Amino acid sequence: MKTVLKVLLLFSLLGVFSGLASAGELTVSFFYIGHGDCILVQDEEHAILIDAGMAIQGDRVVELLKNAGVEKIDLLVLTHADPDHIGGMSAVIENFEIARCLEPGWPDTSRTYANFLRDLERKNVPVENPRAGDEYDLGEIHIEVLFPEMPFIEGAHSDGNANSVVFRIEFDEVSFLFTGDMELETEQRLLEAEANVRCDVLKVAHHGSRTSSSAEFLDATKAKYAVVSCETNSPLGHPRPEVVARILERDMEFYRTDVNGTVVCKTDGSSADSIEWKVERGDANDETVNQNPAERLRDMVTGGNSGSEEEQAQEDDQPEPSGSRLRGMFDRFRRGRQPRGTEGDQQQNQDGSQETQGEHPENPPND
Ligand SMILES: [Zn+2]
Fold first, then answer.
1. In 3-state terms, what secondary structure has residue 282?
2. From the CA of 206, how far away is ligand 1's center (Å)?
3. Is 318 found in the same domain as 224?
4. Residue-number span of the structural domain to which 326 is assigned
5. How far is the CA of 309 from the centre of ligand 1 (A)?
6. Which residue(s) pair with 76 in the sheet?
7. Does residue 36 lie in a domain region?
8. Span from the CA of 85 to the centroid of ligand 1 (angstroms)
9. Which of 90, 176, 205, 239 is least enclosed by beta carbons within 10 angstroms?
């Protein structure tokens, strides 16, 4: 990237992330980190980090947190152990003091998860497995855990996703719902339990995958705003057009990191109408970040330090990709990007060839 652009980007980032929230304010930053989730919640005195993106984003996550004025993480939440949520954790644990960690305790068998627990233990970070009904308070920030609820969900598209930590944050009169990569089964359990899923700001589950965000659930949230975290030109087709349509049909104000870049909202807690939104378009165009889809696909083909192919395939909402299909996707990225508006809706056939389907919600890809 040209130096001038880098300087401009740095200034624009500094403009958005000018430190902790002012007195009586809450700031929530949905960082653009390619594919994955990384969300920072801050009031004047506290920082909560929810997930940390892929391993290849670890250094960037640390830099983003430092730019946001984070010196200590009061609460580190791992919603679940997929690589696009846990990957950057080792860099975070290495670089910050962490007062407490919440993670679902679902029996993930990956080496990354074992290393995560080992890193936390090495730094004497207390780890808890939150369960529905648990509550935590950090100053004026009130957290209410909605899931997991025992027994764990079994037999979902991905049980790891389905047992994500789901929780609400209340800041005075304003509420947020964080959903990890929960699945339709999770939504159903929450609705059956009559859990309080009402919120002003909804973190759309699983990057806008079709395995979440049922109409019934979206209705129950009564959200005014929705934010989805996904990568630019997602090879997984995130967010799915049918999910986008469902959100827009409900008149939610919709932000997506693949288009808006990092999305930041700030509130004084008085009402949903008081929430101010800022988007940082620049980092969604940052080639140093956007190379990552290709790197990730290469890792899926060749293995690599950001998780095994098995781990990667678990979090995809597509049928488990075959090696040849993955190579086709990787080759496509090596050949270069296609104009926006076509690529996100391209489907890969089993033989690696592609077909472009309409972008219109009425003509969704049939994966
Ligand atoms: Zn994910």
1. helix
2. 5
3. no
4. 290-339
5. 14
6. 49, 101
7. yes
8. 6
9. 90
